[in-house]
Amino acid sequence: MKASRFFVSTLKEAPADAEVVSHQLMTRAGMIKKLGAGIYTYMPMGLRVIRKVEAIVREEMNRAGAVECAMPVVQPSELWQETGRFEKMGPELLRIQDRHARDFVIQPTSEEVVTDIARQELRSYKQLPKNLYQIQTKFRDERRPRFGLMRGREFTMKDAYSFDRDQAGAKASYQAMAEAYRRIFDRFGLTYRAVAADSGAIGGDLSEEFQVIAATGEDAIVYCPTSDYAANMEKAESAPPAGPRPAASQPRTLTPTPGKATCADVAGLLGVPLARTVKSLVLATDELNEAGEAVGVRVWLLLLRGDHDMNEIKVSKVPGLDNGFRFATVPEIEEHFGAKPGYLGPLDLKKPVRIVADREVAVMADWICGANQEGHHITGVNWGRDLPEPEAVADLRNVVAGDPSPDGRGELTIERGIEVGHVFYLGTKYSKAMNATFLGEDGKPAHFEMGCYGIGVTRLPAAAIEQNHDERGIIWPDAIAPFTVVLCPIGMDRSQEVKAAAEKLYEELLAAGVDVLLDDRGERPGAMFADWELIGVPHRVVLSDRGLKEGQVEYQHRRDSSATKVGAGDILAYVKERLTA
Amino acid sequence: MKASRFFVSTLKEAPADAEVVSHQLMTRAGMIKKLGAGIYTYMPMGLRVIRKVEAIVREEMNRAGAVECAMPVVQPSELWQETGRFEKMGPELLRIQDRHARDFVIQPTSEEVVTDIARQELRSYKQLPKNLYQIQTKFRDERRPRFGLMRGREFTMKDAYSFDRDQAGAKASYQAMAEAYRRIFDRFGLTYRAVAADSGAIGGDLSEEFQVIAATGEDAIVYCPTSDYAANMEKAESAPPAGPRPAASQPRTLTPTPGKATCADVAGLLGVPLARTVKSLVLATDELNEAGEAVGVRVWLLLLRGDHDMNEIKVSKVPGLDNGFRFATVPEIEEHFGAKPGYLGPLDLKKPVRIVADREVAVMADWICGANQEGHHITGVNWGRDLPEPEAVADLRNVVAGDPSPDGRGELTIERGIEVGHVFYLGTKYSKAMNATFLGEDGKPAHFEMGCYGIGVTRLPAAAIEQNHDERGIIWPDAIAPFTVVLCPIGMDRSQEVKAAAEKLYEELLAAGVDVLLDDRGERPGAMFADWELIGVPHRVVLSDRGLKEGQVEYQHRRDSSATKVGAGDILAYVKERLTA
């Protein structure tokens, strides 16, 4: 490609609403252009990246035996009503009425449509397994779209859906997809981790997220550097406590802590480690009658160590809390504890509550908690002596760095990641809701065992940038760079020699199958270099009159701090050697 | 590709709502699957065709210097309000409100968005010309979607938009696109015509449709077999009448024609050629005051030869009718003619009307028209004698087969076509509406001269089928076939020799870059052949035990009536020789 025929458009300043670096750089590099909140035009420079992402995804999906189709963007509501998602999904689901006032949605995903295809087309176990995928426009009407392509409303997703005759088959399909995803992310040239994720109501271990590692990532991911263990924060199990509970050694003491309503404040005041304090979290569950009306409230007290954070997913698996819970209201708290939030604890309750202790709290002795009395805590609290042994003990907390790995093979480390892929075993959730069956080998109808597998195609470039940039701009991996090599001739309009050498090298690189751009715009060297450093083309060759007189050109990788002089006759081989994709 | 890994799904019967052969065959061949009225999933077999169409379009657009981008499917209404199209477009424009009750549309085309990009990005004449294109999902909420992909609601269109500094530049951009379209349609391997089309209010000749010739086409297209002349019916000019008006030879005679209200009936009753009769069409224009309120009605009488049909586009260019017209109401007709429709004519009017005669009518003598009296016509009518010479004479009619070509180089022929492409000079319509300017060489802002260029990517396969099918199914041109070659091994599960030969040929064809499918499903030969004839793969090779024992396989092109025996060692070369793309 020659720059004069292409669409190069760079900006010195990022727009005011661009909060993250990928949004700033993609806008400044002319890759995306905002049309509305969370809605972007993919400009030529950005679309080249997206097309390369798509091509890698498509190749590996095909290699893994998945078959491409394209489901409609605008989908009639009927199928969405079959699964209940038309009602259940919130305003994120963009609903439309057509000219005949019929309801439609813009697809955020396509489980309903693909399950409908399966129940019509896949009639026999002999046709299984099948995996259908699409690379298609999606829409989610985010309440607060932001961060450019990272959390847009309109986006492109690759979504694949597998159909199997039984769980063993589904597991094999899942594993094949997980392997394909590893190949895909390897080929992108990004640092990533595949981490175990929560699989929700379905249970089992068949849910993994593919996280691109970046300091700016929204997600905390947990891994063990000395073993294979990796999970997202929601999923990461904490290892059981190391030892048994020590014996009580302190008396129970009511201690004034005026104005100290947090564990950290109390620990500071008393001069004890935060890990000696226990925090009280008060939840509530509504008791419903058969008609679904609230007929009563049950209040729960969760006890966690002061230095630990609650993990909502883990809490949602505690028996009794697994049908939904909420934080208790202040009146509910006052009714049961006789105190306002800030000084709550499990002793001297006004009305009974259900107590669930985190596993670490259950093995603590001589701990500190709120006294259910404004401005007071109790120190020296001990299970069995000051209050009964906990009714329920569970893993309720987020892991922290330094926790032992659940596989016992090291300590956990935490880093930030951006989720760009997810593989998920669905079981029969959708096939049962839509009564999607096939005839089994035994002649009886059976529900499909399904899996779903997504990659955020337009999110991926943003994640790549969060991971790979410097103060001058983007640094693309070769595989998804808009152009792999840029040729920057200096004074091409003045020097016939520079022009001829640039055109020759351009043709040679093209002939070698290299995605090369020749910058023939006639920009000054400084502006030209700044443009391509901002855009992030990984390999640059500069041709100048002076250099060519000495038989030399300059090569510089985007990560190099300075240029390397290379013989003009050797540059083709030199560049080709440096390409990684 | 091996069939067992792919998604082959054929039907014996077409769905009841499939009225046209392409809809029937695409459904039966498992290429599309209806999700709702005018909304289809592109199934794997159909998507392969669409992807090949896209690839050819993309290659040629790039070659012509256009640059690919992707504009959003969901577009905020603001830009659409700038051009007035948000209000002006009827219910075909699908309107949406998001969660904040802001208005959006789903793009039917993207003139507004691309013009907005241009006015922000293209600041100087130095950046021109530019041509941006996208291959993207579109939606038009057709009142009566039908004919499968031929007139769907959701579809894929390639739309390109050129920006130039002046009309000469715009004309050059237009011509480059028209040439690119010829290359594209040549490569598709379809019989097509590029025909002149009406360019609406803009005028000039810069509008051409690309019509795939098919007996079932919706459009009538006109061409001269002995010259280059080709136009659609709307546009095709009729040549001026051959000679001067003959002298009057008959007396004006009131003739009873009871119950004969059409020209054909009258000609039949009187035993004269239909071309001797004149039909009366009564139009009306509303006179508006400055506030746009109707303050009066003007009634028009159009006179056409009884064997000619009115051409609305031509009528809409008659001075006085060029701001819109409608058919007159019965009360308006009675008020001016004193008679009901069926016996109307230009003589003995109750109130004056504006008369416009088609050029052919203006040179008629002794003609027959309605008498403005129930059950009566007048014969022997003559201009200048029975009524004044016509106030206005114009080309008002559709051409008919046998008319002289307007270029004077032969006679016109009419055939049917399906419009799949359109190149159009837009002028400054959108750039003025949106005040999209660039700085000209003279330092002054100027409006972009624009063109737009569309190809119906998902309509093209349907048009290809309308042109290329037989009673057994589809016959794809090589370039856009879902697979170019299908290998049909007979008894592959029983015969090791057949299996080995089929696998070997499959690998050889793949290595030669041929898009080959090996049917390893184990179907019986009859069912297998029927499937691939329905699907329309152009080249078929059958491998059987018996044939291989004689060292032979069978080759058959989809258009061949029987198979040809080819030596097993020669088949690779034989097939490659027969490929056209």
UniProtKB/TrEMBL annotation, chains A, B:
InterPro entries referenced in this protein's UniProt entry, alphabetically: aa-tRNA-synt_IIb, aa-tRNA-synth_II, aa-tRNA-synth_II/BPL/LPL, Anticodon-bd, Anticodon-bd_dom_sf, Pro-tRNA-ligase_IIa, Pro-tRNA-synth_IIa_bac-type, Pro-tRNA-Synthase_IIa_type1
Written domain comment of the UniProt record: Consists of three domains: the N-terminal catalytic domain, the editing domain and the C-terminal anticodon-binding domain.
Oligomeric and partner information: Homodimer.
Assigned EC number: 6.1.1.15
The protein's enzyme class: ligase
SUPFAM superfamilies hit by this protein: Class II aaRS ABD-related, Class II aaRS and biotin synthetases, YbaK/ProRS associated domain
Keywords on record: Aminoacyl-tRNA synthetase, ATP-binding, Cytoplasm, Ligase, Nucleotide-binding, Protein biosynthesis
Name of the protein in its database record: Proline--tRNA ligase
Pfam families assigned: HGTP_anticodon (PF03129), tRNA-synt_2b (PF00587), tRNA_edit (PF04073)
GO biological process: prolyl-tRNA aminoacylation
NCBIfam families found in the cross-reference section: PRK09194.1, proS_fam_II
Region (Disordered): 234-258
Catalytic activity: tRNA(Pro) + L-proline + ATP = L-prolyl-tRNA(Pro) + AMP + diphosphate
Domain Aminoacyl-transfer RNA synthetases class-II family profile: start-end pairs: 38-477
Localization annotation: Cytoplasm
Stated role: Catalyzes the attachment of proline to tRNA(Pro) in a two-step reaction: proline is first activated by ATP to form Pro-AMP and then transferred to the acceptor end of tRNA(Pro). As ProRS can inadvertently accommodate and process non-cognate amino acids such as alanine and cysteine, to avoid such errors it has two additional distinct editing activities against alanine. One activity is designated as 'pretransfer' editing and involves the tRNA(Pro)-independent hydrolysis of activated Ala-AMP.
